[in-house]
Amino acid sequence: MDVAQLLIGGIANGCIYGLVALGFVLIYKASEAVNFAQGDMLMLGAFLGLTFINSDRADLPFVVGITAAAICLGAFAYALDRFVLRAIFGQPHFAMVILTIALGFILRFAAGSIWGYDPVSLETPFAGEILRFGGLTLAVADLIIIVATCALTMVLWLFFAKTRLGVAMQASSQNQMAAYYMGIPVKRVNSIVWALSGVVSAIAGVLFAAKGAIEPAVGLLFGIKAFAAAVIGGFGSLPGALMGGLLIGVVEQFAARYAPSGTAQIAPYALMLLVLILRPGGLFAQIAQKKV
């Protein structure tokens, strides 16, 4: 029973890592750039959710609040690409790396100025609720995170497989020049990808906030672990990003329970190192196919 409980808790944490890693991969597939502010976008989404949902703020119903947070962060990410990142289009990838690192500092400073630097909690209708199955004691928040991640993953799969915009995004990620000659507005598609990444980050942020307190610096550590998840899964693979997140979440839980103190903090990076040694492209590597 202890193992099953650890496994479910690890999967719930891994779902959040996986959603942030999805944001990394979406942007990488669209622009071949890594957004090192992805974790800070999760933090921003969590604070937006808190603003819309908590009773001392807008006091909206939970589902309405998370939707409003997703729309706001999606619009912010779209504007960020349209008016800031597009200005360095065609520059070396190093410029994008530096810009997104700087963006992370700005977002943490802005969040601290607006919401303060002390940890705050999100009010949810299922806070503290637990379910018991036999000998298992499960937090309702963990179950909701798992169900929401499965639903979001299905929606994303349907979007990319069944819609014209999703197919255009896939074409653009495979070969931007060919997509341009086929009449696909590549730059606008890239902006929409950033918006989609913002929506996913906002949902991940609110789900994360439902499990514990949030503060401006939380996005930095979370973003680094999610980056490790994307590397483990294989940068460029959406299923790989989700699987990498789940692996990190589960490994962390078991390391915290059975390994010496502090091991859980380094376990994700040890796993990433092991995967890079055994399979440099990641578990679901697609980079080689993309370059053909």
From TrEMBL:
CDD domains: TM_PBP1_LivH_like
Any one cellular-component term (Gene Ontology): plasma membrane
Residues annotated as transmembrane: 6-28, 35-54, 60-80, 92-116, 136-160, 192-214, 226-248, 269-288
Keywords: Amino-acid transport, Cell membrane, Membrane, Transmembrane, Transmembrane helix, Transport
Membrane topology term: Multi-pass membrane protein
UniProt subcellular location: Cell membrane
Highest taxon in the source lineage: Bacteria
BP GO annotations: amino acid transport
Broad class of the protein's primary localization: membrane
InterPro entries attached to this UniProt entry: ABC_transp_permease (IPR001851), BCAA_transport_permease (IPR052157)
GO molecular-function terms, A-Z: transmembrane transporter activity
PANTHER family assigned to the protein according to its UniProt record, in alphabetical order: ABC TRANSPORTER PERMEASE PROTEIN (PTHR11795:SF451), BRANCHED-CHAIN AMINO ACID TRANSPORT SYSTEM PERMEASE PROTEIN LIVH (PTHR11795)
Similarity section: Belongs to the binding-protein-dependent transport system permease family. LivHM subfamily.
Protein name as annotated: Branched-chain amino acid ABC transporter permease
Organism (species): Pontivivens ytuae
